[in-house]
Amino acid sequence: MPTIHISTHVLKLKPNHPPLRRCKSSLLPSVSSLRCYSSSAVAVPSHEPVSSPEPPIPERIFNSAKKSGTYTSGDSTFYSLIDNYARLGDFGSLEKVLYRMKRERRVLVERSFICIFKAYGRASLPEKAIHLFDRMVDEFQCKRTVKSFNSVLNIIIQSGLYNRGFEFFSYVVSSSQMNISPNVLSYNLVVKAACKIGMVDRAVELFREMPLRSCVPDVFTYCTLMDGLCKEGRIEEAVSLLDEMQMEGCFPSAVTYNILINGLCKKGDLRRAAKLVDNMLLKGCAPNEVTYNTLIHGLCLRGKLDKAVDLLNRMVASKFVPNDVTYGTIINGLVRMGRAVDGLQVLKFMVERGSHANQYVYSTLLSGLFKEGKFQEARRLWQDILCEPNTVMYSAFIDGLCQEGKPEEAKEVLLEMINKGIAPNAFTYSSLLRGFFRTEKSEKAILMWEEMENNNDFTNAVCYSVLIHGLCEDGKLEKAMMVWKNMLARGFKPDVVSYTSLIKGLCDNGELEEGLKLFNEMLCQGPSCQPDVVTYNILFNALCKQGNISHALNLLNNMLHQGCDPDLCTCNIFLKALSEKLNPPQDGREFLDELVLRLFKRQRVVGASRILEVMLQKYLPPKAFTWEKAVQQLCKPNKVRVAIDRCWNELVC
């Protein structure tokens, strides 16, 4: 692994004590006092009913104001009230103000309606906004423009009502009475809605419609459409938009490049992603944290951990601060590659630069270290954890201790976990059960299971599977059957592990017919619980031991028909049976050769290649015709092109 270098107070008024009673009777209210009253009036506690008999603007204020030669109550007073009530979300008072303005034939401006629309948006009431939009002209004689149209459309889209947004857009744009022409913002909103619900073709249609309405797409339009295309796997179309936008004089931003780089990285095309970064630099658009994080994530997905760490060093040298996701991605990638110790070094690098790992990173590292047998390193990491452990971290540590062969110590950690108020989950309990069975302490596993049931602790189908598997492995078939019946009685559905474990237990106990009955029951459970190669191998082995090779071959045909490929164990079972149970014995070459051809015929190239490897390892060379089929399948032009691209990516990236 490359070395990582450090390079206002609100006045509450009583309902029946208005400020005017404090004023001298000879004086009329001034504009400032009226505003003071207005702002105070909206500060009445929320427990007072909105439908108070007294209107939001008392009659006496307007009646007294008309006697003054120096002040006339104007529309601005109403506008101020609308702003205040909209900010507070007091829709009852807003309706009263609107009704009074309509009654007195006041002038209502579009700005006030937009203010109300925004209030409806904050309250998640898009239909109220649509209804008020429809009332603007006929009821309030206020002309609608694209501004109010966009305001309502944005509220609908932000509420996640994308189809409703389409309906509203079509209704307004196609209406000759409204005479509203959508602008770039209008199109940006509906393009976004189309992409959100996967209607990318409709988004492209809207995009192509823009110039016909004299709307020039902006960077946001292009970015939204590119992102929608990338999420649909249409990377080529998204990349072609980059050239188009530059030809149209619209300069891409860092967000534009990041969307395309992310799409290419997810596709695995790191070579073109790297070229886009070069293009980005040539256009004077510097990579940012998102660019680096995206590339690092892409490299980790492709298993190029060393290059990801190199890029992390470059990122730090460029004065960019990697975030938790960046570090977590690299650490997770290293752990998956079996390099958990290198992941510890990245964690150290992360902490030295002031970043704090989250529980996910710690649990990933703990699991990786225990899996690789680095028990001391895992224990030291547990002692040095800088965050508060959660259920996932405790579960990872308990599982690791059980892998180390110390279930008793793991149970003490479980008690510590419970005492701290952290609830264990199914994985925690199943790890402990598995740990006791691995150390041949089945009685303690059973006792623990009984404790779990008595305490009504969390159990699920996984815990049942572990218990059944452990009991069958320990030869306790009768107890396993009792647990099986208990599981069914409690409404839990057996999974593949449960079925396979019980089938193996029955076969080992000489009850092959019962095992086959259970297997047939398993086939009827639907696609979520179909037998795998392990299940089939158990039955192959039991049938061949009884010399019933024909039944085993029929089962093999069923296995191929179900889409399950044989493995090395399958081959060894049949080769042993053919050499020991037949007279005269066979070496199995004909059997394996025919199996390869059948797999190639079903387009199961991986499975066929695996059998070919077995044949070569056992010095059972395939026939010439079989080799010809293998070359034809393995050397198809598209497969060769994939191999060449893979090699090119290795060289360039």
Question: What is the topology?
Answer:
Elements: H1 31-41, H2 59-65, H3 75-88, H4 91-103, H5 110-122, H6 126-140, H7 146-158, H8 162-173, H9 184-196, H10 200-209, H11 219-231, H12 235-247, H13 254-267, H14 270-282, H15 289-301, H16 305-317, H17 324-336, H18 340-352, H19 359-371, H20 375-383, H21 391-403, H22 407-419, H23 426-438, H24 442-454, H25 461-473, H26 477-489, H27 496-508, H28 512-523, H29 533-545, H30 549-561, H31 568-580, H32 589-601, H33 605-617, H34 624-634, H35 637-652
Helix pairs in contact: 1-3, 3-4, 3-5, 5-6, 5-7, 6-7, 7-8, 7-9, 8-9, 9-10, 9-11, 10-11, 11-12, 11-13, 12-13, 13-14, 13-15, 14-15, 15-16, 15-17, 16-17, 17-18, 17-19, 19-20, 19-21, 21-22, 21-23, 22-23, 23-24, 23-25, 25-26, 25-27, 26-27, 27-28, 27-29, 28-29, 29-30, 29-31, 32-33, 32-34
Shape: globular
Mean pLDDT: 84
Percentage of residues in helical conformation? 55-70%
Which stretches are low in confidence, meaning pLDDT under 50 for 5 or more residues running? 1-55, 64-72
The count of strands amounts to 0
What is the beta-strand fraction?
Answer: under 5%
What is the rounded distance between the termini?
Answer: 16 Å
Largest sheet: none
Question: What class do helices, strands and sheet pairing give?
Answer: mainly alpha
Keywords: Repeat
Protein name: Pentatricopeptide repeat-containing protein At4g20090
Pfam families: PPR (PF01535), PPR_1 (PF12854), PPR_2 (PF13041)
Family: Belongs to the PPR family. P subfamily.
